[in-house]
Automatic annotation (TrEMBL):
Keywords: Cell cycle, Cell division, Chromosome partition, Cytoplasm, DNA integration, DNA recombination, DNA-binding
GO cellular component: cytoplasm
Pfam entry (one): Phage_integrase
GO terms assigned for molecular function: DNA binding; tyrosine-based site-specific recombinase activity
Gene name, Swiss-Prot/TrEMBL: xerC
Name this polypeptide is given: Tyrosine recombinase XerC
Domain Tyr recombinase: 102-283
GO biological processes: cell division; chromosome segregation; DNA transposition
Length: 289
């Protein structure tokens, strides 16, 4: 049943491999909970799930872990109901804990400018590192989305990048001149040195000539930013890009599209860092400021 559910998650819902692995790990725990009580999937109901979640909380599970477990169960019960295993779907009656979302760590505009102003070494790895950092900051893409980029995804006529995001949703985001210059430097001086017959169409390549992996991309970012005297991560660059857009006057809906968020609630976390912009607007607009 879990194998069929995994195929449903990835094939029909387009969930990422990371999400599928997380859900399956949670649901194996739920299966053990059911088996310890002599129950099966067909017996799944709200009291059984609540008892399982309560045990998780009692053993120290975080709010985020419990919320993910609730999401996994909701997806499973919807699937089991569709398959006829359950007569009704108890999922909508399961409430997850309120999420306490951490405020994102961001670079300010001066830090970002300083980090990206230094000239790169001319080694293939250094050229790739600069192109990776520039592209992440310019486009706000997730590191996995960056690693999935192909050569044809960069549109030079429109200065955009085509991105395949979560849930296999495609979006087009703008990319600035410095990032395009860094990509060009990588394509002319770095990629040919790393390419092998099996490299295919990947934009960024790893040391062995295959598509750049997420782990190596993270290391590229850490190495590049450390050399510039800045502490940052790929997701920090994404946070920074969104924050700087808002500080520069972009509206929340545009930033939502830019980041590929399905809901504006995911984008609203960035508004906390735009207090200075709000103060400036207040001083300009309010008659009693």
């Amino acid at each position: 049943m879990l194998n069929r559910f995994a195929a449903y998650l990835s094939g029909e819902l387009g969930r990422s491999p990371h999400t599928v692995r997380g859900y399956l790990a949670d649901l194996r725990s739920l299966r053990a909970h059911l088996e310890s009580r002599g129950r099966g999937w067909e017996d799944l109901d709200v009291p059984l799930v609540r008892a399982w979640l309560s045990h998780a909380r009692d053993t120290g599970a975080s709010r985020a872990t419990v919320a993910r477990r609730v999401a996994a169960v909701r997806a499973l019960t919807r699937f089991l109901y569709r398959e006829g295993v359950l007569a009704t779907d108890p999922g909508p009656r399961l409430a997850g804990p309120a999420q306490q979302r951490a405020l994102p760590a961001v670079l300010d505009e001066r830090q970002a400018a300083a980090a990206l102003s230094r000239g790169p070494d001319e080694t293939p790895a250094a050229l790739r590192g600069r192109a990776v950092v520039e592209t992440l900051y310019a486009t706000g893409v997730r590191v996995a989305e960056l690693c999935a980029l192909d050569l044809a995804d960069v549109d030079r006529e429109r200065d955009t990048v085509r991105v395949l995001g979560k849930g296999a949703k495609e979006r087009t985001v703008p990319v600035g001149g410095p990032a395009l210059e860094a990509i060009d430097a990588w394509l002319s001086g770095g990629r040919p040195e790393m390419a092998v017959p099996g490299s295919g169409t990947a934009l960024f390549l790893g040391a062995r000539g295959g598509r750049l992996g997420v782990r190596q991309a993270r290391e590229d970012v850490h190495t590049y930013l450390r050399a510039a005297g800045v502490d940052g991560t790929p997701h920090g660059l994404r946070h920074s890009a969104a924050t700087h857009l808002l500080n520069g006057g972009a509206d929340l809906r545009s930033v939502q599209e830019f980041l590929g968020h399905a809901s504006p609630r995911s984008t609203q976390i960035y508004t906390h860092v735009s207090v200075q912009r709000l103060r400036d607007t207040y001083r300009r607009a309010h008659p009693r400021a």
